[in-house]
Amino acid sequence: MTQDLAVEVLQNPSHGFTGVPPTRDGSRTAAIDEAPAELRVRLLQTGTGLSILAIPRGASVCHAADWHEAPLEVSADELQDRADRLLAIWRDQVVLRQTTHPGSGQRVGGRALAESVDLTELREQTDTLVAKLADEGFDLLHVMLDGSGYDLGRFREFLLATLAGGQQLRISFDSEWQLPWPMLAVDPAECDSPWEAFLGHRHQIEQARTGYPWDHAPLGRRERATVSLNKDTTLDHVARAHEVQKLLEERSLLTVRTRGSELLAALSRPVLKEDVMYFWCHGRFVNTGTASQVLAVQLSDTEDIDGPVLRRKRRSFIRSPHSRFKPFVLLNACHSAKAASPARLKYLGQELIDQGADGVLAPQIEIPEEFAAEYAYAFLDLYLTGAHTAGAIGQWLVRRFAQDFHNPLALVYSLNSGINTRLNLVS
Predict the structure, then answer these.
(1) What is the reported pLDDT for 408?
(2) Which of 4, 191, 239, 395 makes the best surface tag, with the fewest CB within 10 Å?
(3) How far apart are CA 372 and CA 368, in angstroms?
(4) In this structure, is the dihedral angle defined by the CA atoms of residues 63, 137, 140 and 148, taken in order, positive or negative?
(5) 359-363 and 328-332 beta bridge pairing
(6) Residue 371, beta-bridge partner list
(7) Where does 225-416 sit in CATH, by number?
(8) pLDDT digit string, tens, across residues 141-197
(9) Dist CA 100 CA 110 (whole Å)
(10) Helix residue spans in 71-196 (DSSP H)
């Protein structure tokens, strides 16, 4: 006997890719007609060195979902050193750059590019600097793919053409080595402007999660998002910081934590009923032994919250269907997107992902406080609507800060997993 089945549509996974987030004045740019095609790039260690493979998905990227694979000729150590060099250049040339010939309202020794979000009045300086940064980003991509091997040449041809093509992609980079992917660039000479050369401007980018997902304890249908603000109160003076907190108070069920002990107590519970965790604090590297360090954050006290302590608190809960830890994390603390090298103690962002977080968005270097607060407000304002994915919002913010403010610092934020994550109040 035939039977009619009742169907309830709880979410539309493709909705977020049919449009783009609104600008501050409420207007929208042209809608995207179809979902961006996907590209997964995997960088892995083999017996003789590094290998790279790419799997395109979507007919407009490739006629079939073929695998492209080749051995790399660069060593893992050189590639990581080059990545660290690129981060250092961004830190020194953008965040720490001192003013030697001040203009109106500037001071000698000041850091004009870090003291304001809107750099429109300095656009001549930032445009020149961005051209240099794009060249450096392209150089790192060239170093990674450089070599004389036939297979590598074919792979290089495919990947560069795909990255530089006119089609927007969702790209997942699956690698033990967390390179500054949004800050890499295609050949700036082939772009209309250096701003458009950066991968984070052209595409949605994530450092991909590895391993199998698991079922978390469900929360059921909820009317409002549950959010935590984990903050250092010494940052309350920053412009927009109070507005971010007010936004969270109005749009969510908000828990505010100002002490590490409060955060550790919450992490010690099997079920953490939070859709979003927002960290507004400082990040620092703590020495753990000779030539070894781990990244930690502090709230208003001196309690270091790092990867190892997070793992200890949740060791008995991981992969248990009776526990839950699935927040999207905006880790707004300096360096907090940086990852430890393979076989080292995992940094906080890496451990959050291992414990089940839906994604971690964080800066890869020092980030000016004013910019960090402005970025957080813009991101959370859009994410809490539930209408857009983290990957779409991240790319849109790169373009928005570039176009409206001539500020490249949105490219510093790196998404670890979560490219397709959106606020979902049904679980």
Answers:
(1) 98
(2) 4
(3) 6
(4) positive
(5) parallel
(6) none
(7) 3.40.50.1460
(8) 999 999 999 999 999 999 999 999 989 999 999 988 889 999 999 999 999 999 999
(9) 8
(10) 76-90, 123-145, 150-164
